[in-house]
Amino acid sequence: MNSSPVLVVGGTGFVGGQVVRALQDRGKSVRALVRPASDASRLETAGVEIAPGDMMDFDSLMRAMEGVDAVVTTAAGYTRHSKGDTAEIDVTGNRNLADAAARAGVHRFVLTSILTCDQTPDLPHFWHKKLMEDRLEQQQVPFVALRPGAFLDGILRFGGDPFAKGRLSSFGSPGTRLTYVLTADVAAYLAAAVDADIAAGERIDIGWDRAVSMRDVADISSKLLGRPITVRSGPSGLMRTAGRVLGPVVPMARDMGSMLAWFETGRYVADTTRQAQVFGVPTAEDAIARFITGLGHPLRA
C-alpha cells in the first residue's frame, strides 16, 4: 500500500470528516487542508496531519500537496456551513485546487461532484461541479468524479430525528422519485476511489438500486419500524417563488429554488451501472434501515 498521505480538502465538514475516518479505516495516512479560522482539534485528536491553508490561496495548496499521492475533496462553499464559505470557493477555489494538483503531479484526484451536474447550467452549485470536472480534465489531472444524489440523512435530520417524530419533511412533491444517498456510503466510496481500478476522467453516478419518492421512504420506514411514518409536504412553489424574488440579493435562495424545480422534473436519477461494478449498490430498504438504526431506533423483528 502506498504510504504517502492522502490530502483531504473539506475534512472539518460533515462529509469530509467521514471521508477522513474511512481513509484511516483503510490504513491511509491523512493530511487535511484546514483554514486558520476552522477548528481542527478533532482531526488532530484522530492523528490527522494538519496543513494550514485555504482554497483561495494557491501557494498554500501547493504546500499542502507536497508529497501526497492523492487528493479527495468534499469542499462546497455555497453551503456556507463554515466561516469564510462563499460561492467563490466553488469557482476560484476549485480552479486553484485543480491547477495545484496538476502542478504537484497528484496521481489520483477524487472529486465529490453532483448527480446530473452536466445537465443544469442554470443551477449554479451543480454547474460549478461540472466546471471543476472540466478544469481537471483540461489540466490533465488523473481524476475520478463521484456524482452522488441527494443526501437523505442530511435532508431528514434537519430539525431533529424524523423517526422519533414519526414524520418526514418533503420540500417538493412527496410523490416525485429521485436518487438519494447516505453520507456514510458516499464517504466510503470516496475513500475507496483513491485506490480503485477506475480510469482517469471517469464520472460515476452514485445512488441506490432505484429512485424513490419521499412517500416511498415513508412507506419503507413504516414497514421497517412497524409503526406509521407520515410525510409533510413543504411549500415548494413558495420556495421557488422566493428564489426568483430573492435571487438577485440572496443567490443561495435562487440556487435552492432552481434545485427544487430540477428535482420535480423527475430527471434527477442515477445510472448506477458503473457504481455496481466498482463499489456495489445498496437497496433502498438496506440504506433506509441503516439510517434508522443509526439514529438508535430498533427495527421490527
Explain what you see.
By secondary structure, the protein is an alpha/beta fold. It is 42% helix and 15% strand. Helix 1 (14-25) crosses helix 8 (183-193), helix 3 crosses helix 4 (92-104) and helix 9 packs across helix 13. The longest helix is centred in the middle third of the chain and has 15 residues, at 124-138. The radius of gyration is 19 Å and the shape is globular. The chain starts with 5 loop residues before the first strand and ends in a 7-residue tail after the last helix.
Main features:
13 helices; 301 residues; two-stranded parallel ribbon; Rossmann fold; seven-stranded parallel β-sheet
In short:
This protein is α/β, with parallel strands linked by helices. The protein has helices spanning about 15-25, 40-45, 60-65, 90-105, 125-140, 150-155, 160-165, 185-195, 215-225, 235-245, 250-265, 275-280, 285-295, and strands spanning about 5-10, 30-35, 50, 70-75, 110, 145-150, 150, 165-170, 180, 200-205, 230-235.
